[in-house]
Amino acid sequence: MSGPAWARPRLRRRWLAAAIALALVPVGVIAYSVTSASAAATLFEAENATLSSATVATNHPGFTGTGFADYSASAGGFVQWTISGATASTTNIVLRYSNGSTANRPLDIAVNGVTVRAGLAFPTTGSWNTWATVSTPVTLTDGTNIIRATATAAAGGPNVDSLSADISGGTVDNKPPTMPTNPRVSNLTCKTVDFAWDASTDNVGVAFYDIFHDGQLIKTVPGTQTSVIGLPVVEMVTWGLYVQARDAAANVSDSSDTVTITPPRCMPDPIPPTAPGNLRGTAAGTTVTLNWTASTDNVQVLSYEIFRDNVHVGSVNGSIGTPPATTTNDVAPAPDTDFAYYVVATDPTGNVSPKSNTTIVHTGSRCLDVCGAVQVTSDTDIPWGLVTLPDGTILYNRRDAHDIIHLNPTTGVKKNIGTVPNAQSTNGEGGLCGLEINPVTYNSDHWLYIMHTSSSDNRIVRIKYDPVADTLLTSTEQVLLTGIVKNKFHDGGRLRFQPDGTKLFASAGDGQSGSRAQDNNSLNGKILRINPDGTIPSDNPFGNAVWSKGHRNPQGLAFDANGNLWEQEFGNSIMDETNVIVRGGNYGWPSCEGTSGNCGGFIVPKSTYPVGSGSCSGLTVVHQALYVACERGMRLYRFTISGTTLSNKASFFQGSFGRLRTVEPAPGGKMWMTTSNGDKDSTPNNSSTKIFLVSVS
Predict the structure, then answer these.
(1) Does 648 fall in a domain?
(2) Residue 95 belongs to domain with CATH number
(3) CA distance 531 to 22
(4) Is 677 part of any domain?
(5) What is the per-residue pLDDT across 133-160, written as a single tens digit (0 to 9) for each?
């Protein structure tokens, strides 16, 4: 490898991080399939049922049979089916309905006079001409069964077209397959690898195996197949391969162990890129914009490395097959000062070009946007959740070590205040994640709200903090919400109180099963909303903790000055997205990723980012500007908020500090920013991370 010694380890890490974007290209056709576990369903039309405060109607097209049941605008009306000849079993009943109103119209489901599901959600379908289905498990007896669906809202129930159920003795399959074991690779080349595993078992049968690298779904194969020959890889890019099993009822196994691979270089390449040309720069305040003419290379230019006064200050990364951009921003450390810049190019082998010309840029008299970052501490674990206490000090969660640190950013003094009980990791992204305090009641109650992985799930708890003794009072722990399915990746984890302190919001990933994101009765792939004591607010749209759905792996949450809730979400292979979250909103995953896919009828993101320059986790609002911290993109995005639109997009610190995880408001109109370098496993204290105080205008 050519180039000066300083460049070798740094540039290799940066081009590897850039090259990994090739992993974003889907391999094969990926689809989530959800089918019923019942053997055969019998259809029972609503117009043939017993109706009370409901009538048979035909005024909306798309119904089956001769009509549908139209509930009166009052609570208490019902549709009641008499099902004869059933065999004793537990089975799913499926109700076909339409709801053209904007509100959920729940129904209580009773079997033989006993309510088995109170408040089953029937959310809006967008139009009375649009039909959808809702299902719930029930237990039937031999012979005749009476199933009643009773409206509980003052507006009445939805239009109900039919009920279907397997009455032959089929049972609901709620049991996931066992974890695939013994994952292994062979025949690793610079372009492909063979990947195999030992079969899972399932009470019904394994339908699919989903293959991932580092949280990204790259291939799905039938359940009869336990190997992939010639899986495409990227030369010299380290991947963590693993597999999980899925059955026909969409139950997902635990992920297999991870197999780490680093494909070799395809061929020697001693030729470096040519020097970047015509470097020029302009300043707006202390933000310097640089532009240059592209380098050329016999293989490909993979990155540009930016230097200010002979110190490396950032990178512009491309990916295999996609060259990097020829422009970037830098945050200069002082106003009204001359700074000397030059740029070098690198190729996939790590060869370094000659320097570009040097350009001198004189900064403006004051900062206009992002004004610089000062390191306040370092850590050997991942700082994930972070809150500022009333005295200006901060608490932050260490994800893999499962403890909380109290930091005085002025003196740099740190204290470990305690370990969170029952916290576990997932050999991936799970562990001790979200941390929040109630902005209204903290001074009197001292509750810390925490989202973490346990042995059985992801959950939200609260534990009191004693500020006098500076310790976590673990005996006060209260579990507020359980049952969020955990997995190696896609665990979400951010917590955010709304400004008046009355509701707590949480981001929950899909647990690597996209079908959960559209299931109203699953807490995964959702933005959740609970009261501070863990009870469910009465105005939640689906009668449970779910506030919005259709999310893949949301991790950023923040309120702006107008009360809008902004959310940041990881994409799979195409694009990340920034959303404004609304009650009952559907954001499209897994049918829609950002604006790609089958996106009709879903809420459109306010901004999207290619995954290679995004993969963003943290999000905050300071001075009515939105800031987004990105991991793979290794940069901070800034937007101006105008109502619910975003404008004036700019990026900062590109490649300066590595992967950026969390951003939070800091005293004096500033911002905390944490890094997340060395975070792909769950081993405590094996990372190299920092916390910065960022000055913004």
Answers:
(1) yes
(2) 2.60.120.260
(3) 43
(4) yes
(5) 888 888 888 889 999 999 999 999 999 9
